[in-house]
Every structure is written in structure tokens, then in C-alpha cells.
């Protein structure tokens, strides 16, 4: 379980293809502290550490993950938001994030508000029931509050600290991001659908 509070920025150094899988060597300030089999959120995608080599670590994404996320676009140089799992005695500063990306969303607009930056994203309408005004969503692993919600779009406002310390600074109109909707909303939607059937 993660909280959506990004711990470090990493950078893709190498991409390896094996059948339908892709493996990534990622260099970061926390790589040397990681352990094999540890689960780490990479742009909101929970991936298992397979190897650690000094200041870098290796993870692999399978076909299902590549189809649902933007990992298929990663190339050397791509900046990655990293977060280790929350310790049991830690604070939940963001919201409950599983690292199981639901879909991709596309940036529609970016507005500089002289002190913050507002991003608008378009997402598949099939997820509309999971998006509520002032609710939470994980975008590239960042826990954010959403507003100005419509059936297929919502906005988020980014403070300067988050802009500087995450890869949302590299998101522009047309950029695809990973999105995970709030888990509580998923359970409620599932429960209601079963009551109606």
C-alpha cells in the first residue's frame, strides 16, 4: 500500500524487451537502499525490484501492465516518480493507493496560475462513477484532489513543491499519465452493481 506522496525522482537508464515484457533499469537516490522482491511504486505502478546494482535497480512490466499504463512509452531519460510502501507505523499523508493503475488519462490543458499550476485531464467515460468533486486520484503515483469534474474530465492544482519534486513538471497537453481511482469508490460501485443484478 502506498500513500501517493512521492519520495524520489528516478530516471530510466535502460529498456530491455523480452517477449511481451519490458524491463527497466532505473537510477535513483534510493535505489541502493532497495531490496530484491520489494514493491515500489513507479509513476503509480506497483513493480517488484528484481535486481539492485549500486545507484540503480531493475523492474519488469508484463503485457497487462504495459497496456493499462504509460510504461510502454518509457525510454532512457524518462523521469519516474518513486515511492516505497508505507510502513505500518507511518502516516497516511495522501490517500490509500494500491499501485494498481486503472487506466491512462491524457492532459488536455496546463495553466500557470502564478503560484500554482492547474492541469486538466481527460479519462475514459467508463470510469465516470469513480470520479467525484473534491475526491482523490493518483496521477503518476501522486495523490491529488480533483475538481471541476465532468463525465470525462477533471482538474488538479499543483503546488510549487510537488511541481519541483515530481515528474508532473514534464506533463503537457497530449501527455499520457497513469491514473488510479480511489479504492473506496471502487468498492461502493461494485457493491451497488451487485445489488442491482
From TrEMBL:
It is an enzyme of class 2 (transferase). It comes from the Bacteria. Keywords: Repeat, Riboflavin biosynthesis, Transferase. One of its GO terms (molecular function) is riboflavin synthase activity. Its EC number is 2.5.1.9. Pathway: Cofactor biosynthesis; riboflavin biosynthesis; riboflavin from 2-hydroxy-3-oxobutyl phosphate and 5-amino-6-(D-ribitylamino)uracil: step 2/2. Pfam families: Lum_binding. One of its GO terms (biological process) is riboflavin biosynthetic process. CDD domains: Riboflavin_synthase_like. PROSITE patterns: LUMAZINE_BIND. Lumazine-binding repeats lie at residues 1-95, 96-192. Residues 1-95, 96-192 form the Lumazine-binding domain. InterPro entries: ATP_synth_asu-like_sf, Lumazine-bd, Lumazine-bd_dom, Riboflavin_synthase-like_b-brl. It catalyses: 2 6,7-dimethyl-8-(1-D-ribityl)lumazine + H(+) = 5-amino-6-(D-ribitylamino)uracil + riboflavin. PANTHER family: RIBOFLAVIN SYNTHASE, RIBOFLAVIN SYNTHASE ALPHA CHAIN. NCBIfam families: PRK09289.1 (NF006767), ribE (TIGR00187). Catalyzes the dismutation of two molecules of 6,7-dimethyl-8-ribityllumazine, resulting in the formation of riboflavin and 5-amino-6-(D-ribitylamino)uracil. This is Riboflavin synthase. It comes from Pseudobacter ginsenosidimutans.
